[in-house]
Design a protein that fits this description.
Number of helices: 14
Order of helices and strands: HHHHHHHHHHHHHH
Radius of gyration: 20 Å
Largest sheet: none
Strand content: under 5%
Shape: globular
Structural class: mainly alpha
Number of strands: 0
Length: 320
């Protein structure tokens, strides 16, 4: 499953005589068209959440592994075609295979956590709990990336985890009707945080296209390995729906990446949380789900903590 919470970095192509003589590409330091950036972000989050809603609907008819395998079968040729059109086959080159396979394994685990979560839980609840991912990333960064996290951000992380407890409700997690299923999205958020840390290490030498292809192949292969557990015959409607999810996911990430060409990351970041609103809308329209007050309160705390961390990191970056 592709990255839901982090902006995919744009990497330089492998070195060549032409590339070496070209001037370095510098990031845009000011917003050139903030309205477009915000609009693309809102549209991208809507599409990616609609894709999640389709996968939740498909989970009632298909085993998760089969759905991931078929979707990956459509996605892999699309990724290769996109790489060929945008930078040539060399953009698919992979150098650090161990780290790439580690990232792929983390995405596999996160994909199953997510899709089993949406199979049994309301979509908005899964999305809200998933916002804990950046909190885990901030907490783990000093140990795996050597980044310094000051007391303000540590305080925001602790407060954010308090919001997570409000949403998960540990006592109800093991005594309620759903049991431990309610903890699956939290496991997915933690897995996603480790994935983001590995990704940040990879991006120093690896291309985005190559990383995406390896990850998609790992997820697709993991789905194929579930075939002995029992798959169901696919009809035309289910096949077309799975193909549509590949197109929707690619379109969403294209919009989200393009948004950073028009606006600064600090301006766009808060609007990524609007996918909780989309999840609530789609959940209500398709399944009649309404987030409870405890879930909404916990989500508000987690979102506020994330926004403070982003604000703090932006100020420190400007000082640096």
């Amino acid at each position: 499953m592709p990255d839901r919470d982090a902006r995919p970095p744009v990497l330089p192509l492998p070195s060549s005589p032409t590339a070496q003589s070209a001037p370095p590409v510098r990031p845009v330091s000011v917003s050139t068209a903030p309205g477009k950036g915000i609009g693309l972000t809102v549209g991208g989050t809507a599409i990616i959440t609609f894709n999640d809603a389709i996968m939740k609907w498909l989970s009632a008819f298909l085993p998760v592994g089969e759905a991931l395998f078929v979707r990956g079968g459509f996605a892999i040729p699309f990724i290769c075609l996109l790489a060929c059109l945008t930078g040539g086959w060399r953009t698919l080159r992979v150098g650090r295979w161990k780290a790439q396979l580690l990232r792929g394994s983390l995405v596999v685990a996160g994909s199953y956590f997510f899709f089993y979560s949406v199979k049994y839980l309301p979509l908005a609840d899964v999305v809200a709990i998933g916002f804990a991912g950046p909190l885990f990333t901030t907490a783990l960064a000093p140990f795996f990336l050597g980044e310094r996290v000051g007391w303000r951000r540590w305080a925001a992380v602790l407060i954010g985890f308090g919001g997570v407890l409000l949403m998960v409700r540990p006592q109800a997690a093991f005594t309620g009707e759903l049991g431990w299923i309610v903890l699956l999205p939290l496991c997915g958020a933690c897995t996603g945080a480790v994935r983001d840390i590995v990704t940040r290490k990879l991006m120093a030498t690896e291309t985005t296209s190559g990383t995406l292809l390896v990850t998609t192949f790992c997820v697709t292969l993991s789905g194929l390995l579930t075939w002995p557990l029992g798959w169901v015959p696919l009809d035309t409607q289910l096949t077309l729906m799975l193909a549509a999810t590949s197109i929707l996911l690619a379109s969403a990430h294209f919009l989200l990446i393009t948004a950073y060409r028009f606006a600064e990351a600090a301006l766009i970041a808060p609007f990524r949380f609007i996918n909780l609103l989309w999840a609530a809308i789609f959940g209500y329209l398709f399944w009649g789900d309404v987030p409870g007050p405890t879930m909404l309160a916990g989500a508000a705390v987690v979102i506020g903590s994330n926004l403070f961390i982003w604000h703090r990191e932006t100020r420190l970056a400007k000082r640096g």
